[in-house]
Amino acid sequence: MNNGKPAYLTLLLALLHGIAGISILVISAWFIAISAIAPVGFNYVIPAVVIRALALLRIASGYASMWFGHNDLLARIAKARVRVFRQLENSQITDKAYTTEALAQHTEELASKWIAWVAPLSSVVFIFTGLCAAAVYLDLPGAFYILALLVAWLVSVAVQGLSALTLAKKANKANKLFRQQSSDFFNRSAIWHLDKSMIESDPATSNPDSTKIPSASQVWRYQQAQKAKAQRTAWWFQGLAFLFVVLVMSGVSPVASAFVFAPIAIVIPMVLLAAPDWAGAGFLSVSKFAQYKQSVSALKQLKATPIKQYRDREIIHSLNLIQFSAKGRHASIVNSSLPANGVVCVSGPSGCGKSSLLQSIIGLLPATGLRVIDGIGMPEGMVTNWRYVEQEPIVLSGSISLNLDPAGNDISQNEMSELLSALGLEEILPLKNWVGKAGRPLSGGERKRLALARAILAKPPVLAVDEPFEGLDSYTQQKVSEVLNSLSATTLILVASHTTPDALNVKTHLQLGEADIKTSLQTQCAIS
């Protein structure tokens, strides 16, 4: 599936499906007309066999088109998502909610273009053009009407397309806003019970729309508007086609007299009568095309801050931070000498910049000041073999083993299982269990420990963990502490936490100040 052959094969099969369908219609119409005036001895078997063969061909080509199309769709989704990952590679994502939307929806819109709108629209254009050419070439009675209907269809598609592009743009904007509002709303879940306005309407206005709960109603309205627009256009086209049938059959048109002498003339009215079925589907495809165009534009606008990367660095003696602070944030300025191994506990009041400090040490955030490793200054950027475990880690939709080894580094299954057991995650085993979307739901504490295990298995010389004990009971905190204690013999572990269990062997305390932004370093010499 690395080339375009399945897509083109899907298109050819879709064309064959459409041609077989219209051929059945034409031959059946002729067969019905000729049966009324056929002489004795007329061979009815051949037309019946042809119709049956065309029906089988239509069914086979339809199923084959779906099979090749959906296999191609899956391959293209994978390739589209890899392109998005590459676009975001070595970058700090500024809008996670919008990036999630890009991966979830826009990549599917790009990948489904062949089965969503390329094949359907191409089939209609090819069949319509072929019918018009055949009608004119054979000088069929009523050929003018099929030509007029083709022109009407093209105009309808163009008008609907312009409207669909506008609606798709508005829908994408509303969807982006909803994603961001939802993300902000759930991030404030800890204070929902303190802010009644988040769950109640504004009493001053008594307007349900004034609630702070995010709503997807606007997104739904635009999606419904797209469908309604396509449906109205299809009804308009159907009405015009039926009007042409009435004109042909009522005697208003001189074509009507031809039916007495030429049964083939019934083909045009039959084609006109069935046109809404085989040509009207193109209007929904136009809406898919508009969504595709909007998705292409949206993926080009993904915002991320590039992160410079530097090759792996080990710490032999110490990591010195001199006037060090996360750039552009209200964070503490740190002057500290951190050991090559052991647990360093970073503490301080909320908002003092603990998370920002950890991320800037790893290199995920730009920083001011100096980061000196064994006397050698390190420029700004991320060290590739250092790891950071965020406060709200990502869990991939896949198996436990995939989450622990997403890069495919052939990590031992026994090593994975032993580490999970040591962290108190025996309940999510075995490793083949599916977690994430459509899998086993994980609690916040389980997600944190799974992400911690993923980072530990990468064997980093520096591991920064943000709030690893939050939401854990005392027994589980002790198990996590034991794992970190064992790892600290060879690794510098930076822990930002409001809670420091007694079981955690802290070698160094780094206390961040509040408004005055002062730091102090207290080394516990009793711990080797």
UniProtKB/TrEMBL annotation:
Instruction: Reply yes or no: does the keyword Nucleotidyltransferase apply.
Output: no
Q: Which SMART domains match?
A: AAA
Coiled-coil regions listed: none
Q: Which residues does the UniProt record annotate as the domain ABC transporter? A: 316-527
Asked whether the keyword Zinc-finger is assigned, the reply is no
- Residues spanning the membrane: 12-38, 44-69, 114-138, 144-168, 234-252, 258-284
What's a single GO MF annotation on this record? ATP binding
Q: Which UniProt keywords apply?
A: ATP-binding, Membrane, Nucleotide-binding, Transmembrane, Transmembrane helix
Where found, per UniProt? Answer: Cell membrane
Query: Topology in the membrane?
Result: Multi-pass membrane protein
Its cellular-component GO annotations read:
plasma membrane
Q: What is this protein called?
A: Fused ATPase/permease component of ABC-type transporter involved in cytochrome bd biogenesis
